[in-house]
Amino acid sequence: MNDNRLIASLIHIDGISEEEILSLLTQPKDLGYADVALPCFRFAKALRRSPVDIANALAEEISKDLPPFLLSCTALNGYLNFKFSREDMAKQTLLTVLKQGDDYGASEIGKGKTICIDYSSVNIAKPFHIGHLSSTVIGGALSRIFKKLGYNVVGINHLGDWGTQFGKMIVAYKKWGDNADVEKGGVKALHKLYVKFHQEAEKDESLNDLGREYFKRIEDGDPESLALFERFKEVSLKEANRVYDRLGITFESYNGESFYNDKMQPVLDLLKERGLLVDSEGAKVVNVGDDMPPCLLVRSDGATLYATRDLAAAYYRKNTYDFDKCLYVVAYQQNLHFRQVFKVIELLGEPWAKDLEHIAFGMVSLADGTMSSRQGKVVYLEDVLNSAVQKAKEIIYQKSPDLENKDEIAEQVGVGAVIFGALQNNRIKDITFSYDKVLNFDGETCPYVQYTHARANSLLEKAGEFDGAKADFSALENAHELVSAIASFGDAIKAAADKREPSIVTRLAVDVAEMFNKYYIDNRILNAEQGVKEARLLLTFAVKQVLKNALSLLGIAAPNKM
Questions:
Q1: Helix, strand, coil percent values for the chain (each to nearest 5)
Q2: How far apart are CA 59 and CA 76, in angstroms?
Q3: pTM given for the model
Q4: Closest CA to 165 of 302, 257, 259
Q5: DSSP string, 248-316
Q6: Are 352 and 142 in contact (CB under 8 A)?
Q7: Please, what sign has the CA dihedral across residues 534, 540, 544, 546?
Q8: If 466 and its partner were Cys, which of 93, 158, 369, 537 is the partner (CB 3.0–4.6 Å)?
């Protein structure tokens, strides 16, 4: 909200910029006491004064000449508290939403800065399964959130397209597969071959040796092996892109592991030159400290590992994009891996090591248990989307039989429910996916938020044009919490970026939807007197716009009718 910027400009603390003060302003849970607060604890050390003294002194100074939009500026327990004129706050907030529309919540705080986001990173010739859901939608949401804040975002799909599994796939294809099956069955056909290989390898160990031999042929550039490898990649990406299209996901780079095959040696040479690469029982490792095991980079047989390629990728990304931050949206099971990789770069003396971040998240599973690619126990993400859409279609056909474009809206509701379900809670939490839960039209779900957006749109269509200039903003006194939530949308986007936590946007959307539905029940809108009607329609427009913008950041459509 503009008032936050104005408040930041009123606060003068030696050595603290207006931007930093702006970033520290928060909205208290109890709006009865303050609309915006500044915690002063961070300034205590620099100013050598207690937070209580700092807050008291600031309150005394600012209260001498309060601007018209502020009712009060007070201090309590180290917090500087501001109370707005509710009428003025509603006017400024809602007219700002009306003016900015789809740009509401945007800012340019990231202008001139680049963020690389490594996410999704599906494996070639393996299923795009529900286990990839969180990385894909968290990374996609963060990409859109940072773009909304003016950052240059480089979305990277670090494809799993290297390793002995591709030698095994070639063996399986040559022994049991054919082109017609792959053409018809796609990744599912490739996955069946992968499962069959491991079943047969349990009976005949020599198949694993043959798999390693064929991967060596790929590494050596054997034309037949390379052609099959590229064919597997083409089939996999075709199906993956179909899912990405439905999820609204795009990438700026598809450079996967194979891309870095010729870029690892310079990093290994640098480590050797700095005396960091040491021999360990025939392998080559970097000792990264007493709190974690050595980082293995070259096995005793000469093979490189994920860590080697991630080091090469980090250097390539820094040299190519000169990023300010590089985020890795990968499950928490890889915590140690990234700690080791980041530490190696730190030991190499690279100042940008501090700009590498692992954005960990919990696991997604269905109620019936876990998955294993080798055993064939997988749940394809496309099948999950199809099932969600089908269930949404059944509900819509039952609840709204006269609705136009029911199939299109069912796609938006079903896919949106899957995305929203993965982004609803803090990303580190494990998720047990339930169709019935995510497709509930009541409560904290995507269909509920989408339905609220459609309800607001319906009201606006019935009302026709409205005139914000004629609005009686004093009539919105009882909508103060809803107005405050709308006003905090920009802050929620910034917080979601700062904390790498899309669920902050998700929760705000649910809060706005819940508050508006309560307001809708308690207040006449279309048949209220003129000034009150205009104010309430403007509030309805702001709700519709904020819900649309929030869902858009999450990669979810906002149907106008449901």
A1: 60, 10, 30
A2: 10
A3: 0.89
A4: 257
A5: T---SB---GGGGTTTSHHHHHHHHHTT-EEEETTEEEE---TTS--EEEE-TTS-B-HHHHHHHHHHH
A6: no
A7: positive
A8: 537
**Residues 452/459, Cβ–Cβ less than 8 Å:** no
What is the per-residue DSSP string for 487-541? HTHHHHHHHHHHTT-THHHHHHHHHHHHHHHHHHHHS--TTS-HHHHHHHHHHHH
Three-state DSSP state, 202: helix
Retrieve residue 466's tokens.
């409205």
User: What is the spatial distance between Cα 157 and Cα 82, in angstroms, rounded to a whole number?
Assistant: 45
d(CA 31, CA 539): 19
Q: Where are the alpha helices (DSSP H) in 400-445?
A: 406-423, 435-438
Please give the structure tokens belonging to residue 139: 């990374």
Neighbour count for residue 555 (Cβ, 10 Å): 22
CA distance 547 to 549: 5
Q: Would residue 233 count as lying in a domain?
A: yes
**Total tally of structural domains belonging to the chain:** 2
Give the C-alpha separation, 263 to 385, whole Å. Answer: 38
Maximum alpha-carbon separation in the chain: 86
End-of-domain residue from the set 212, 247, 282: 247
Residues 6+ away with beta carbon under 8 Å from 217: 167, 170, 224, 225
Domain contains 350: no
Comparing C-alpha atoms, which of 383, 378, 405 is closest to residue 243? 383
- Strand order across the 79-84 sheet: 36-39, 79-84, 70-76
Task: At 280, give phi and psi (nearest 5°).
Answer: -145, 100
Task: Look at residues 56, 84, 112 and tell me which one is the last residue of a structural domain.
Answer: 84
Residue 20, domain extent: 2-84
DSSP annotation of 122 reads: P
Cα distance between residue 379 and residue 419, in whole Å: 16
Residue of 317, 312, 311, 254 lying closest to 115 (CA atoms): 317
- CATH number for position 32: 3.30.1360.70
199 falls within a domain? yes
Report the distance separating Cα 192 and Cα 197, nearest Å. 9
Is position 223 within any domain? yes
Token look-up 């949401």 returns: 141
Residue indicated by tokens 């946007």: 505
